[in-house]
From TrEMBL:
Coiled coil: none annotated. It comes from Sphingomonas swuensis. Pathway: Purine metabolism; AMP biosynthesis via salvage pathway; AMP from adenine: step 1/1. This is Adenine phosphoribosyltransferase. HAMAP family: Aden_phosphoribosyltr (MF_00004).
């Protein structure tokens, strides 16, 4: 399936989570076996070389990262919200529209020198991906790029990631919020 065909599988929900927002819901794409497989194939084709790990951020990022890691023959690194991982973790705070949140990963989840590709369903402001990249880099690993099913370029996430030396690629792009 082409990206234009995949676009038809993404549901738009107006006024969610607040009035004026057009929420891009990837769950309808994930429900479509052929579409989901094609989306992962397109993302995998955009990756040069094989990373050691694909890092997925909670929660829909787990789905994208798992499928992409399998396709690329890489391991899977789970980056979770605070309080979800047992054992020793490192954490990074990041800004939200109204406050802050925190991401964590196990201290031994990625070895120094490992190559890590970030993966998530949606790129908006880039805050989650930047926090994940800081965690990976604190562990001594190298972030080789980031892949997303959807980019909302008006929110500036790709620009922020590129400024942090993280090359991004998104399958689909939607104007607005």
């Amino acid at each position: 399936m082409t990206p234009d065909q995949l676009r038809t599988l993404v549901r738009t929900i107006p006024d969610h989570p607040k009035p004026g927002i057009l929420f891009r819901d990837v769950t309808t794409l994930l429900l479509h076996a052929e579409g989901f497989a094609a989306a992962i194939d397109h993302l995998a084709d955009s990756v040069s070389g094989r990373p050691d790990l694909v890092a997925g951020m909670e929660a829909r990022g787990f789905v994208v990262a798992t499928a992409l890691a399998l396709k690329l023959g890489a391991g899977l690194l789970l980056i979770r919200k605070d309080g979800k991982l047992p054992g020793a973790t490192i954490a990074e705070d990041y800004a939200l529209e109204y406050g802050t949140d925190r991401l964590t990963m196990h201290v031994d989840a990625c070895a120094p020198g490992a190559t890590v590709l970030l993966a998530d369903d949606l790129l908006a402001t880039g805050g989650t991906a930047l926090a994940a990249a800081r965690l990976v880099r604190r562990a001594g690993a190298q972030v080789t790029g980031a892949r997303f099913l959807i980019d909302l370029p008006d929110l500036g996430g790709a620009t922020r990631l590129e400024a942090a030396d993280i090359h991004t690629h998104s399958l689909l792009s939607y104007a607005g919020h």
